[in-house]
């Protein structure tokens, strides 16, 4: 049953004393009419009187009457965000994608599922993650006149397995079980999504196969070991450039071949519909908690949200809640590798062109012939030549801004957060932190900046040792 | 007629940084064949029949089409050009030519490897087009291109269609564009008189299959199994019932592909009622793993003939 209270999105004056339910707000599209409805759920176990519930019906035609005209449906019933998204996959997978979407909608209304998911997120993953005021980082960016922004870190690094990836993995594993699939496959770049998937497969007793580029396996050996220890089979992918994009292609091929018994836990907001939407919804808890925590801490909303962008899942997870709040700036930071002009980077939204990769129409790094280019970043998790279609859309409509930082800048930020706050961030996260150098001097005094601390950096020490001379 | 008119020109294959281009004039550097030889090219290009036409003719004689697939540029474009001629003269009714792509989702290890080798050699779209411009006039059977969507998008759908039409390509197969997304593609294909072939698979629900067969042009491509391309030891018996189902839904010709690698398979599938049989990986493997291109072409000829012989 949906809670009776209706909360218009963006109303800051509501006092929420108890933790929000971690269940995701399902975006329900009625299969026949295409009507879009956002529904929320109160979790009976939390005893909450109020939950974030918004019921608005929007049709494609009436999109202009929607609270924020010009945003359209995110996504529409074909899985498109404007011109981006869609389902560009071999025909063999089409039915599985439809089945997946139907299961997702059904579960978004299933109380038992929501309860189970919420319980796991709380007791197993360790949610809710803190919103931490980074005192010394704030001091560091304070200007000589004493003015400067206030910097908060959303501590996704404190989740079980050390990154935000687990939010999505847990929900999708539960979904797979509901679908009766006993075999799970996943792709992984840095290994965090692979570890998260292996973790949930161990937790739920599912067979687990992780595809990882041979090159990535070398630079993230710790994560490879962890996956195996957790009972997963890690398959090295040698084709193409032997990195994340090739692991993703191989995972898709496995899914095409084994679709009847297998669920593919895609790790980011990329891929064919319904993945970009589903993965976003499973990570949206990050933004929801942030809204509530911001209210508690300073009685308002964040002014700027900053997150690193590889495929874009942690960023979408933080941003989604606030997309309709026009006064909240959304800043995504990609990897510029050796520099934007070096040809060795992964700055898809800055330097890419629109095309189709792994099932979705989005910006991607390609050459003159339409072949996909091998990207480069010191951080394996950002080393993806594509980006989630919703990010492409948010960029095109000007709702979100995207920048990039080099390997060198990321390493500096990696060191800096360790020294200033005693938190060793993932190299991916370090990209978001590095952008603060450019961002903070421009912000008015007292601006509230929330950086998504998407992961911890233990997995990166071997790489750091090579580059940092301490 | 076509051969005689070509004999008067000397062809100098020039290896440029962007692939192989053929020049008509000894002193020139990279003039495309098409620009200086267009009148002859367009005359002979029109001689290749439409794909649906091929199937009608075969049906009249109760014959089943033999459709081989090879990857352009593996081992190199020159060999591909010769392979196309060998396939044509060995009895192919239609030839599928794959454009090598960096991330071929629907392809198994054999075709993946062929694509990687072709790309490493510097094969690109312009190179393939130049090669086709020269060889298509010499072929009696039509060519259908097999490509993923991104290379099409890169050029723009309209431009892509007109380029391939210009060199005499008659059909197109794009494995990563589902029915819902084919509208634009189909519109442009129709406009340029290219037949866009759509795929249906064992996991496609019946209602959806009906939509696919209705929209498909040239023929309906039935994927024989749940999976990617690659030879299999046997053809799934599901193919028989799927063929029946499809034929209840349409009178268009149906060709079966994926996994078919031996004369026995070819015979079996034809026996189940297929109007065409597609053989890819087995042929690609042969060409790619041959000790030399010449060896490969010889083996190609005998293998093709053996497959063709298994067909009525």
Distance, first to last CA of chain A: 57 Å
CATH fold name of the largest domain in chain A: Rossmann fold
In round numbers, the mean pLDDT of chain A is 86
CATH class of the largest domain in chain A, please? Alpha Beta
* Side-by-side strand order of the widest sheet of chain B: 3-4-5-6-7-8-9-10
- Number of helices in the DSSP assignment of chain A: 16
Net shape of chain B: globular
Poorly predicted runs of chain B: 1-45
How many extended strands of chain A? Answer: 17
Residues in β-strands, percent of chain A: 15-25%
Globally, the shape of chain A reads globular
Number of strands of chain B: 10
Q: List the secondary-structure elements of chain B in sequence, H or E.
A: HEEHHEHEHHEHHEHEHEHEHEHH
Tally the helices of chain B: what do you get? 14
Q: Helix/strand/pairing class of chain A, anyone?
A: alpha/beta
Query: Structural class of the helices, strands and pairings of chain B?
Result: alpha/beta
What this model shows, in words?
The complex is a heterodimer of chains A (470) and B (312). Chain A folds into three domains: 2-83, no CATH class; 105-121 and 165-278, Rossmann fold, CATH 3.40.50; 129-162 and 283-467, Rossmann fold (3-Layer(aba) Sandwich), CATH 3.40.50.1100. Helix content of chain A is 36%, strand content 17%. Chain A is built from 16 helices and 17 strands. In chain A, a hairpin with a 2-residue loop joins strand 4 and strand 5 (84-85). In chain A, helix 10 crosses helix 11 (313-319) and helix 14 (407-421) crosses helix 15 (427-439). The N and C termini of chain A lie far apart (57 Å). Residues 1-70 of chain A have low confidence and may be disordered. Chain B has 312 residues and is an alpha/beta fold. In chain B, the strands form two sheets. Chain B has an eight-stranded parallel β-barrel, surrounded by nine helices. A two-stranded antiparallel ribbon of chain B has the order 1-2. Chain A binds chain B through residues 78, 86-96, 239-240, 245-246, 249, 252-253, 256-260, 353-359, 364, 366, 368-372, and chain B through 101-109, 112-113, 116, 119, 124-125, 148-155, 175-181, 198-205, 208, 212, 223, 226-228.
């Amino acid at each position: 049953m949906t809670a009776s209270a209706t909360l218009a999105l963006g109303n800051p004056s509501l006092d929420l004393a108890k933790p929000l339910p971690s269940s995701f707000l399902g975006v329900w599209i009625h299969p026949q009419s295409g009507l879009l409805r956002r529904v929320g759920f109160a979790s009976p176990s939390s005893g909450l009187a109020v939950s974030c519930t918004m019921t608005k019906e929007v049709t494609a035609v009436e999109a202009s009457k929607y609270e924020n005209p010009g945003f359209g449906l995110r996504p529409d019933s074909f899985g498109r965000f404007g011109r981006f998204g869609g389902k560009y996959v071999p025909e063999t997978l089409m039915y599985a994608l439809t089945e997946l979407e139907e299961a997702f909608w059904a579960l978004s209304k299933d109380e038992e599922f929501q309860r189970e998911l919420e319980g796991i997120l709380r007791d197993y993953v360790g949610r809710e993650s803190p919103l931490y005021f980074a005192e010394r980082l704030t001091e560091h960016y304070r200007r000589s006149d004493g003015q400067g922004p206030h910097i908060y870190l959303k501590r996704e690094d404190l989740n079980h397995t050390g990154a935000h990836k687990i939010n999505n993995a847990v929900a999708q594993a539960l979904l797979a079980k509901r679908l009766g699939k006993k075999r799970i496959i996943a792709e992984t770049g840095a290994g965090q999504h692979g570890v998260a998937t292996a973790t949930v497969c161990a937790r739920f007793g599912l067979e687990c196969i992780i595809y990882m580029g041979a090159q990535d396996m070398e630079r993230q050996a710790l994560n490879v070991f962890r996956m195996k220890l957790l009972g997963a089979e890690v398959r090295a992918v040698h084709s193409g450039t032997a990195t994340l994009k090739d692991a993703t292609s191989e995972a898709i091929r496995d899914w095409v071949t084994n679709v009847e018994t297998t669920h593919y836990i895609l790790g980011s907001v990329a891929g064919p519909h319904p993945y970009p939407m589903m993965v976003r919804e499973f990570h949206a808890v990050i933004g929801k908690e942030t809204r509530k925590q911001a209210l508690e801490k300073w009685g308002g909303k964040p002014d700027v949200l900053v997150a690193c962008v590889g495929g874009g899942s942690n960023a979408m997870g933080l941003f989604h809640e606030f997309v309709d709040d026009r006064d909240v700036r959304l800043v995504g930071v990609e990897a510029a590798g050796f520099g934007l002009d070096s040809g060795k980077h992964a700055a898809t939204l800055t330097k890419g062109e629109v095309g189709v990769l792994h099932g979705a129409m989005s910006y991607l790094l390609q050459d003159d012939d339409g072949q996909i280019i091998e990207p480069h970043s010191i951080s394996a998790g950002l080393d993806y030549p594509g980006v989630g279609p919703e990010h492409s859309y948010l960029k095109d409509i000007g709702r979100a801004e995207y920048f990039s930082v080099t390997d060198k800048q990321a390493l500096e930020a990696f060191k800096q957060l360790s020294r200033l706050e005693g938190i060793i961030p993932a190299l991916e996260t370090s990209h978001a932190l590095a952008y603060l150098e450019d961002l903070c001097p421009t912000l008015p005094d007292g601006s509230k900046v929330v950086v998504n601390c998407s992961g911890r950096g233990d997995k990166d020490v071997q790489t750091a040792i090579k580059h940092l001379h301490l | 007629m076509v051969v005689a008119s070509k004999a008067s020109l000397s062809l100098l294959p020039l290896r440029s940084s962007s692939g192989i281009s053929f020049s008509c004039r000894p002193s020139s550097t990279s003039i495309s064949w098409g620009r200086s030889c267009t009148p002859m090219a367009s005359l002979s290009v029109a001689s290749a029949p439409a794909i649906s036409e091929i199937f009608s003719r075969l049906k009249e004689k109760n014959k089943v089409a033999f459709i081989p697939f090879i990857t352009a540029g593996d081992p190199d474009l020159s060999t591909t050009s010769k392979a196309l001629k060998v396939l044509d003269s060995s009895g192919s009714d239609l030839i599928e030519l794959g454009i090598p792509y960096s991330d071929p989702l629907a392809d198994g290890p054999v075709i993946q490897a062929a694509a990687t080798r072709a790309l490493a050699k510097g094969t690109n779209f312009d190179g393939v087009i130049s090669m086709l411009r020269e060889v298509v006039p010499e072929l009696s059977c039509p060519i259908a291109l097999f490509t993923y969507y991104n290379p099409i998008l890169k050029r723009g759908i309209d431009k892509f269609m007109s380029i391939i039409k210009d060199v005499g390509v008659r059909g197109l197969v794009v494995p990563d564009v589902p029915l819902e997304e084919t509208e634009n593609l189909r519109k442009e294909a129709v406009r340029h008189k290219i037949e866009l072939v759509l795929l249906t698979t064992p996991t496609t629900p019946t209602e959806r299959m009906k939509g696919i067969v209705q929209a498909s042009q040239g023929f309906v491509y039935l994927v024989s199994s749940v999976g990617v391309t690659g030879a299999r030891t046997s053809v799934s018996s599901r193919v028989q019932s799927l063929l029946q189902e499809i034929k209840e839904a349409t009178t268009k010709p149906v060709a079966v592909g994926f996994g078919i690698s031996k004369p026995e398979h070819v015979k079996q599938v034809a026996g189940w009622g297929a109007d065409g049989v597609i053989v890819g990986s087995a042929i690609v493997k042969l060409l790619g793993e041959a000790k030399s291109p010449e060896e490969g072409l010889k083996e190609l000829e005998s293998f093709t003939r053996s497959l063709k012989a298994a067909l009525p």
